[in-house]
């Protein structure tokens, strides 16, 4: 899945001129919201994200704010589950984290406080 800007970049990388790449992106018939949704699901298959973190990652990938929000809104993620998965990842790397430190780290990753608490309390289940 590509954002509009990402597709242009990929086409240019493949040897098309900027104008050819823009023409291709403009006329390919892509639904950029659907591309953002596909990319969101792809990211969630490989890593855990908060809602805001996923939006930020999609924007970093070239999606507009509204496309990124669409992807995050429609990806079907359980944000509590995502927090628990992210917590598990942190505990593998930093096994001496206290519960409080883990909650703070999850909040830093833009999970809500309640999601962070859920993650800290349930990461062993994931």
Account of the protein in words:
- With 126 residues, the chain is mainly α.
- The chain is 71% helix and 0% strand.
- The protein is built from 8 helices and no strands.
- The radius of gyration is 17 Å and the shape is elongated.
- The model has no long low-confidence stretch (mean pLDDT 97).
Strand content: under 5%
Q: Summarize the amount of helix as a percent range.
A: over 70%
Say how many strands there are.
Answer: 0
Shape: elongated
- Rg, Cα atoms, Å: 17 Å
Biggest β-sheet: count, sense, barrel? none
Report, as a whole number of angstroms, the end-to-end distance: 27 Å
Question: pLDDT below 50 for ≥5 consecutive residues: which ranges?
Answer: none
Please report the number of helical segments. 8
SSE string, helix = H, strand = E?
HHHHHHHH
Structural class: mainly alpha
User: Residue-averaged pLDDT, rounded?
Assistant: 97
């Amino acid at each position: 899945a590509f954002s509009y800007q990402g597709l242009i970049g990929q086409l240019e990388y493949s040897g098309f001129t900027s104008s050819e790449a823009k023409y291709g992106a403009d006329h390919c018939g892509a639904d950029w919201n659907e591309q953002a949704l596909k990319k969101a699901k792809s990211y969630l298959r490989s890593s855990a994200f908060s809602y805001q973190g996923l939006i930020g990652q999609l924007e970093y990938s070239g999606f507009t704010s509204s496309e990124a929000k669409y992807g995050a809104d429609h990806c079907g993620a359980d944000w509590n589950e995502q927090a628990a998965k992210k917590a598990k990842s942190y505990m593998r790397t930093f096994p001496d984290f206290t519960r409080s430190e883990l909650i703070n780290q999850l909040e830093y990753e833009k999970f809500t406080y309640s999601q962070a608490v859920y993650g800290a309390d349930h990461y062993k289940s994931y």
